[in-house]
Amino acid sequence: MKALLALDSIDGHKVPNERSIRSEIQKAAGILNQMQGISNAKTQVDTENYIFEITCNFANVKALDEGIYQTLNSLIQTPQKTDIQKNHFVFQNQRFERNFPLNPKPEFEKLPGKYKDVLKEAIFTAIYRFPKSIKSKSNQDAKVSKTGKASMLRYSLYQIASEQKTIQNTIILNQ
């Protein structure tokens, strides 16, 4: 990946440099910090392993969902911007839902094979921590921590984009 970032472009597509990647991630944290109900948004960038992390505190899941929606709307500058929807996260009555209201497969199918291969190496990891223990989960691939208060899903971007796997998950917490 480092070799790819050293290039100006690949097949006519501009390759972002490390500085612009860091800048975009910092912009995302800045947008989140301006949102009502969200605070302490911080970023961590590991360019050696290409791990990009944004963490924040949020008053409720609705505030987080709105923050993600506003951040994506501000940063994404493509025709697919119209596909950005709300309700990625919903929480009520001890029920947490992680939805994925996108359909990436049509765009994925248009990609040349060499780009699809890159997605096989890129990993998406979602970790959700809760104040109470997890009673059940709908996604069988989700792992529950030893304490029972966290859940983790880990897939390649290839699996998600080709719709072989989904990051959708409903987690029910104990009362």
Task: Please explain how this structure is put together.
With 175 residues, this protein is an alpha+beta fold. It folds into 2 domains: 1-86, Alpha-Beta Plaits (2-Layer Sandwich), CATH 3.30.70; 92-175, no CATH class. Helices cover 32% and strands 31% of the residues. The chain has 6 helices and 11 strands. The protein is globular and about 55 Å long.
| Distance between the ends | 45 Å
Overall SS class: alpha+beta
**Apparent shape:** globular
From N to C, what is the helix and strand string?
HEEHEEHEEHHEEEEHE
Strand-residue proportion: 25-35%
The averaged pLDDT comes out at 87
Fraction of helical residues: 25-40%
The fold-level CATH name of the largest domain is: Alpha-Beta Plaits
Numbering strands along the chain, what is their spatial order in the largest sheet? 5-6-11-8
Figure out the total of helices: 6
Give the low-confidence spans: none
> Which sheet architecture does the biggest sheet show?
4 strands, antiparallel
Radius of gyration: 17 Å
CATH architecture of the largest domain: 2-Layer Sandwich
